[in-house]
Amino acid sequence: MTTVVQYILSGLAIGGIYALVALGFHIMWSSAKAVNFAHGDTLMIGGLLAVYLLAAGLPLGLACLVAVVAGGLFGLVLERIAVRPFLSQQGSVGWMLTTIAVGIMVESFATIQTQGYARPLPSPGVASSVHIFGAGIYPQELVIPLVAVVAMLGLRALQRHTLVGRAMRAVAHNKNAAALMGINVNAVVAFSFALAGLLGAAAGVLVAPVVQASAAMGVLPGLKGFAVAIIGGITSAPGVVITGLVYGVMEKFVEGYISTAAREIIGFSLMILTLLVFPQGLFGKREVMKV
Description:
The chain is mostly helical and about 290 residues long. The chain has helices at about 1-30, 40-55, 60-85, 95-115, 140-160, 165-175, 175-180, 185-210, 220-230, 235-255, 260-275; strands at about 130, 135. It is globular and about 60 Å long. It starts with a helix and ends in a 14-residue tail after the last helix. The model has no long low-confidence stretch (mean pLDDT about 90).
């Protein structure tokens, strides 16, 4: 029983990271029908920048806040220079290559700065563990899935009860119609990429005290976050969060009962099988094109 609880709690923690990253992909895709494939690197930016700002003398809370804002700015700038130029070209998917290229460059720069070493981010959340039904876990890990759920609920409230949120929904539904109604489509798309960057950097700040910050810390979470977004249905915010949490728990059980090496094989095999049965994702809606 203790082992099962341990796997569930640990899985929810890593699943919360996948959910936050996937939620960022959902936001970007909904507004632009394009995503930032360097999104995983916003996680790294958040974690590493918080470490360096803390070392420079900033209080922990302020260092984390600045790091999260920097992640949002990264998303904003990347949308402007690597995504927007291609969205105006009918049928162009150049944004795929440019965002991947930017991600590689950012990761290489971070590797140079850190010399390949991981850096710890001290946090009260990892000072001591708590025990739930005999399973030990850090309070920091318990916070991560809660933040993912709160972020999803906050996004839904933003979309339903604010002008900018309604503009995001309008642009997601039909860009041309939204533009005719006076909505600045480019500004809404830029805001969406910035918001996704904030979530990615927040994920990095949350997980850095647990796994330590490094130049490569965002690679796998970014890839798996995208996989989670596709499996859950990239058009559904609750769907990607639920899928992220479940995927994290599944990984921990595979690690514990089979092996770490089998984790990726089984995880991505399930992704392929799910998409064969549900091409639009588990919670996604089939998009109908009218001609």
